[in-house]
Specification:
It is built from ten helices and no strands. Helix 2 crosses helix 6 and helix 6 packs across helix 9. The chain is mainly alpha-helical and about 190 residues long. Helix content is about 60%, strand content about 0%. The mean pLDDT is about 95. The chain is globular, with a radius of gyration of 16 Å.
């Protein structure tokens, strides 16, 4: 790959599958990819670039599952492979502790979608049909107030992400939910 050139999705998917064995983490990456592609369409941005950013944002999590290394060491792998710097910076910016500012719309969208996608999956899994079709914005907001539900999802990041994106929280939840519904087959919800 030429330095700074946009990789093909097949290359990004191969990287994801090489580094991630957990099918649920892969599904999370597909969900964030779908949300990022939808936001790119919404904003008139490059859908492929935004989608690839969502797809690989957590590719190193299994090998580096701590703040000392994720996504810092993963981004070094991306840079060594010639990934575009704006993707690398967006991936770094999705980790609040990285110190890298979310200074592009793409970086803000990635941060806004990441935790929300995980939370929406958790919401779907407690519906009778285990389906995103049964998830409603009002129930998502209600569950966000429950500390005992999906404990690993940072609610503050969801709220901050929507605010940084300049999106109304209800509209943001509905938008991401609809994007995720579009890839039901890939995550089985």
């Amino acid at each position: 790959m030429t330095v700074g050139a946009l990789p093909r999705r097949e290359q990004a998917s191969a990287l994801l599958h090489e580094w991630i064995q957990n099918p649920n983490l892969r599904k999370h990456c597909y969900a964030v990819e779908a949300a990022m592609r939808a936001y790119a369409r919404h904003y008139g941005e490059d859908q492929e670039r935004w989608g690839l950013t969502g797809l690989i944002h957590d590719f190193d999590w299994e090998r580096h599952p701590d703040a000392a290394r994720h996504p810092l060491e993963g981004v070094e792998v991306l840079r060594a492979a010639g990934w575009p710097e704006n993707i690398c910076r967006a991936v770094l910016g999705h980790a609040t502790y990285s110190g890298v500012p979310r200074d592009t719309l793409m970086a803000r969208a990635l941060f806004a979608c990441d935790e929300l996608c995980g939370f929406l999956v958790a919401c779907a899994l407690v519906t009778p049909e285990k389906s995103l079709d049964q998830v409603e914005v009002a129930s998502v907001k209600k569950k966000m107030k429950r500390a005992d539900f999906a404990r690993n999802v940072n609610r503050e990041d969801i709220l901050t992400g929507a605010a940084e994106l300049g999106a109304d929280l209800d509209e943001h939840i509905a938008f991401v939910l609809e994007a995720m519904r579009g890839i039901r087959g890939e995550h089985g919800l």
